[in-house]
Amino acid sequence: MNYRQIGSTDLKVSELSFGTWAIGGSWGTTNDQESLKALDYAMGEGVNFFDTADVYGDGHSEELLAKATKGRHSEIHIATKFCRAGDIHDPKTYSMESVTKYCEDSLRRLEREQLDLFQIHCPPIEILQDGQVFEVLDRLKEQGKIRYYGVSVETVEEGLLCLNNPNVSSLQVIFNLFRQKPLDELFPKAKEQGVGILARVPLASGLLTGKFKANAKFEADDHRNFNRDGAAFNVGETFAGLEFAKGIDLSNQLGWIADGRGNMTRAALKWILEQDAISSVIPGFKTVKQVQDNLKALDAKDFTAEELDKLANFYQQEVHPAIRGPY
């Protein structure tokens, strides 16, 4: 396992880490025992960083992480997120009182005394423009409740806005072969300012595994069913903002990336790892097998310059025009 610094912080994390949305909820059926086995396996392979949120299973993913990391707080870093358990448009959600409660509730579920990284969870742009929430987070940092803070954003514009705040340590960004826009301006500026990048939705909700067929069905409580057109939250969170059938077609066209790399999953993750602004890529998982497969991306062969150009052109010509919603 290789480790990378999250921006200018002293957090050195596994370059391939894991997000815990899927084991918390909204991804169909889960099994806690399998989730705990998968977490334990990941840590055994050198993974020392996990991303979660208070709304993943109404705190369930945080509770699972508490069980999995018990006695290992100094070696396993956890990032969590807040605000979406409330009204994300109400300024009171970002008050000192509210954010302190979110923080303390997460600390209680995680069974920790301090959060390594506390992130605003995809707030509306007007909240970022107002900026008062950053002052609240500065105070929590002074109190020792959090070490660092960052923002999970939906769009490049939001990310660039966050960079105006000197105490933002990280940005969590939707970034994958179907969402390459951050490469142009956001990533270079973040790197210049010492802000770490966490790449989320790296497999485009599974499209980039190459395993789906056009007639695929998802469980009722899986966001790939109820949010595929953005009915519940930002459409970009599901299939990277692509209409499902279009996503399947584009995925099929990318099948060649698996050649010599084992499969599309490993290839798609490897491409992200080759971007020098990335601090860590955080795919989701439900099973030990999925963790094992994702970790094999670390040993996949690099992309050639010709292949990288081909992927950039494919994004611009075929993918970019098909993405729905702001990004």
From TrEMBL:
One of its GO terms (molecular function) is oxidoreductase activity. The keyword Ligase does not apply. It holds the Pfam family Aldo_ket_red. This is Aldo/keto reductase. PANTHER family: D-THREO-ALDOSE 1-DEHYDROGENASE (PTHR43312), NADP-DEPENDENT OXIDOREDUCTASE DOMAIN-CONTAINING PROTEIN (PTHR43312:SF1). Residues 15-313 form the NADP-dependent oxidoreductase domain. It comes from the Bacteria. Its EC number is 1.1.1.-. Keywords: Oxidoreductase. The keyword Oxidoreductase applies.
